[in-house]
Write a structure and sequence with these properties.
140 residues, mainly beta, four-stranded antiparallel sheet, three-stranded antiparallel sheet, 1 helix, elongated
């Protein structure tokens, strides 16, 4: 199998000098994004997905199941409460859309899927689709 790699002409000559020169600095004035961190476990013919979604309301979460693909998306809203005479010096809370999708090894039964959201954690119970029973074909 062919392996592709990115050629960096400065890596051989100046290995440490230019490394990370174009990467953003942590704490810079760019908006922070919220990552949806997930844990996936498999047990008794079903998958259990736990997704951390802090600062998200239940009404703003959408889950889509298509075959063995699961897509989780949400809109994080920032409620701004500015009082007269008050000025904002710094704001680090994120608002906007976040999304995460992944594939599982088995087809999912979307009719029996369940979702629960509590304390900033979305818990999905995703039963596997039962495999169709083998059938015998008669030969004429």
């Amino acid at each position: 199998m062919t392996r592709l790699s990115l050629y960096d002409p400065f890596a051989e000559v100046f290995p440490e000098l230019f490394r990370g020169i174009m990467t953003p600095v942590a704490g810079a004035s760019r908006p922070q994004t919220v990552d949806i961190k997930i844990d996936v476990t498999e047990r008794n013919g079903e998958y259990k997905v736990m997704a951390e979604m802090p600062g998200v309301r239940k009404e703003d979460i959408q889950v889509q199941i298509d075959g063995n693909r699961v897509a989780i998306s949400a809109e994080v809203k920032q409620e701004s409460e500015h009082k007269e005479g008050e000025r904002v010096l710094r704001t680090e809370r994120y608002y906007g859309a976040v999304a995460r999708s992944f594939q599982l090894s088995s087809e999912l039964d979307d009719e029996k899927a369940e979702a629960k959201f509590e304390n900033g954690v979305l818990t999905l119970t995703l039963p596997k689709k039962s495999a169709p029973a083998a059938r015998r074909v008669t030969i004429n």
